[in-house]
Amino acid sequence: MITLDENNYGREERLGLMAKLFIGVLLIAIFEGAFRKWLSPSLTYPLVAIRDILATIGILFAVKKGYARFAPLLVASVLALSCMLVAWGMLQIILIEYPLVILIYGLRFWLLYLWFSIFVAISISAYDFQRIIKVLISLLIAMTPLAVIQHYSPVGSFWNKQIGESYIFTVVHGIVRTTGTFSFTAGFTTFVAFAAPFVLASLDRRYGIWRKQSWSFVAFAALLICTVVSGSRGGIIFFTVLLLSYVVCQLLFSRGRSGGSAIFILLLVGIMIAGSFSIFSRAVEATQQRFEAASNSQSFVSRLAYNFLPPGEVDLLGAGVGMGTNIAGVIAGGQSRFLLAETENARVVKEGGIFGWLILLFKIVVVLLGLTRGGVIAMRTGRLLSLMVWMTAGLALLSWSIIGQLTINVLGYLLVGLAIASLRLERSGQI
């Protein structure tokens, strides 16, 4: 059931400007890799510039319309942190004397899509939100055949082409880690994780994402297939944890209120999983070999600690805002690489020093608040969207390369924006 609130300014059920900009940014983020690897690598910066301009237009439009009044505490908190970040970066420039252009790039990574997503989150209507989700899931469904083709194609085929002469990652010898439309494997696995909570939520008819329930199962099949053929250990573990959480929460909180039998849906999901393992046995066996090889070189606990824990010793001032981005590697040495660290929390702390620790603490508090409020909604209504999205957003904020890599930067912040919007809309009963 879609209703209008004051954020819609009484408009009819049609896509608002902020939602259109959001979808435009999302489409460019998803397809820019395809243009770069299959047409020309020189398209990188023009495409990034276009989506940055779209995000900037959205921010300026939101400021002009006074959208900040819809969430004054949130906006004030982020504004305070933004001012502190700029001041801290200028202090680093003075004391460390690293290139100003890297600071500018760093501020862009830290702030541009954060502000855009916040303004989207506090302004879009339920109609906008549903249409955004539908576009996102439709893109996942459309990308699935490409992922399957890549999985079964030779490493050096056209479908598995990468930018330049870069090394093509494989699960085992002769089987690639799929990239979809993205230029690198991380972009594909990030996109699949981005879509996962919305696909699971679409199984509940009350959200009204699809007119026919059968499309929900098509979407789940697409999510399952993309996960199986991705060859990503992290992607498979995340999907398993999210799916198990969904199953448990459905059994605990549905109480017969979901639009359809929860038990029937879960049984059908189980059958689809078993079927995919049989159909894509090649991918399952390759992934199993990858897990076994990885466990011999590094334990699972060590891998988790590496991905989520910040470094033990850090300079209090930090190496400089922006120094952890892959663009900083291009400026410093002409090669796209991470200068400070490979993991997100390590980059945040090494870039910002003591301020980086403050940002890390802020992110943890935000994730805990989101999970708590999503859990309360689940217990009261049996609706699981907010909880599932915040589980994914928590992973994004604490492990994705949001301040380091261009595509993950935009996808991570867009996910956070949808997570904030889901709390507002679901708590008010609009979705």
Structural notes for this entry:
The protein is built from 16 helices and two strands. The protein has 431 residues and is mostly helical. It has one domain. It has a two-stranded antiparallel ribbon. Helix 1 packs antiparallel against helix 2 and helix 14 runs antiparallel to helix 15.
What's a quick, concise take on this entry?
The chain has 431 residues and is mostly helical.
Portion of residues in helices? 55-70%
Give the H and E element order.
Answer: HHHHHEEHHHHHHHHHHH
- What is the CA-based Rg, rounded? 21 Å
Strand content: under 5%
> How many angstroms does the end-to-end distance come to?
6 Å
Mean pLDDT over the residues: 87
How many distinct helices?
Answer: 16
How can the largest sheet be summarized?
A: 2 strands, antiparallel
* Structural class label: mainly alpha
Largest sheet, order of strands side by side?
1-2
Instruction: Give a count of the beta strands, DSSP E runs of length 2 or more.
Output: 2
Low-confidence stretches: 1-11
Gross geometry: globular
As for the number of domains, it is: 1
Topology:
Blueprint: H1 17-38, H2 44-65, H3 72-96, H4 100-123, H5 126-152, E1 170-172, E2 175-176, H6 185-201, H7 214-230, H8 233-253, H9 262-279, H10 281-297, H11 300-308, H12 326-333, H13 344-352, H14 354-381, H15 385-399, H16 406-427
Antiparallel strand pairs: 1-2
Helix pairs in contact: 1-2, 1-5, 1-16, 2-4, 3-4, 4-16, 5-6, 5-7, 6-7, 6-8, 6-15, 6-16, 7-9, 9-10, 13-14, 14-15, 14-16, 15-16
